[in-house]
Amino acid sequence: MDNHLIRVGVIGCGAIGKEHVERLTNVVSQTKVVAVYDYVEKVADEVAQKYDAKSFASGEELIASNDVDAVVVCSTDETHAGYVVECLKQNKYVFCEKPLALTAKECEEMMAIESEQGHRLLQMGFNRRFDKGYVEMKKAIEAGEVGEPLMIHSAHRNIAQAAGFQTDYAITRVAIHEIDISRWLLNDEYDEVQVLKVKQSKRTSGDWLNPQLMMFTTKSGQRIDVEVQTDGAYAYDIRCQVVGEDGTLDLPDPAAVTKRKNQQVSYGLGDHWASRFADSYDEEFIEWATGILNDQLVGASTWDGYASCVTSDALIQSRKTGQPEKVTMIEQAEIYK
Predict the structure, then answer these.
(1) How far is residue 95's CA from residue 77's CA, in Å, rounded to a whole number?
(2) Which of 66, 79, 150, 193 is deepest in the core (most CB within 10 A)?
């Protein structure tokens, strides 16, 4: 790696993997995709041919290549931990899509290795931290514009899900974004969480629970409620309101043309995460590349991935027990402070 160009290998060439390859090629000027791997060889070969990259026989082989400076992991959830650990052992920068791992122990292993290396190597794929709306909300909170934050009301609504969707995915794949962004906005950790039973939607196409209502209490006593609709919603719609002592902050809708016709005012809503958060994904990878070149990553860390994993586990346990569950984490290592 020279001072101006990062050679990137991408593991996982599914929907989001292809989005990221395109982004790293045509949006981020400091990166070049030189290697790809997917367990479906044909898919990897097609991506490699399109972007003039090399298709590798395994993710481990890609990580070990001297021609790869940094790795993007967007493969299936259960493979994330193994690839990330291998990158960290080789002191190689890695970007990992959520979730970081399936267990807290795997996250703890990653943090131990990263601490031994002496600097941050991993950035989590929590792109909402780079969304302009959330960034403005964060700035307003830090400036004290609405006084001390007291609570957050959030909603994450989806039109549909892919085949094989399960009840737990509403937490580990969907609400995980609200888990992270609420911690980030409030600059606090969770003390207790709970999943509450609500009336189920007839619009659900599978046999998973939908919707789900999740409650969070932070260490300082702030309350957060997150409504998660994983299927049958009217649009892909993300809502967030911070209630402070002196006012409220609302996440703005994406820019759209307002139509005034037939005594009505209307504007369109999106149908997919890729279009709703396209700009934040771009900014996320631009900042990742800049962080690598400066050896100072600024996005979500391994600790943030760990916190989301522990919180997800507690939420799943609460759904099973019907009771509030404590969020218990290990001591934070110095490199994450």
Answers:
(1) 14
(2) 193
pLDDT, mean of residues 309-316: 98
CATH class of this structure's domain 6-125+279-300: alpha beta
Give the predicted TM-score (pTM) of the model. 0.95
Please identify which residue in the block is written with the tokens 């609500």. Answer: 198
76-98 residue pLDDT tens: 999 999 999 999 999 999 999 99
Digit-coded pLDDT (tens) for 145-189:
999 999 999 999 999 999 999 999 999 999 999 999 999 999 999
Closest CA to 65 of 87, 85, 81, 50: 87
DSSP-based three-state secondary structure for 318: helix
Look at the alpha carbons of 213, 150, 128, 311 in this order and tell me if their dihedral is positive or negative: negative
Q: Span 132-272: which CATH code? A: 3.30.360.10
Q: Coil, strand, or helix at residue 188?
A: coil
| Helix ranges (DSSP H) in the chain | 15-26, 41-51, 59-64, 80-89, 104-117, 132-142, 169, 176-186, 273-276, 278-294, 302-321
Residue 310 to residue 29: CA distance in whole angstroms: 36
Helices 302-321 & 104-117 angle (0-180, nearest 10): 170
CB neighbourhood size of 160 (10 A): 15
Q: How many CB atoms lie within 10 A of CB 254?
A: 17
Please report where in the chains the tokens 């997919």 appear, as a residue: 272
Question: Where are the domains positioned within the chain?
Answer: 6-125+279-300, 132-272
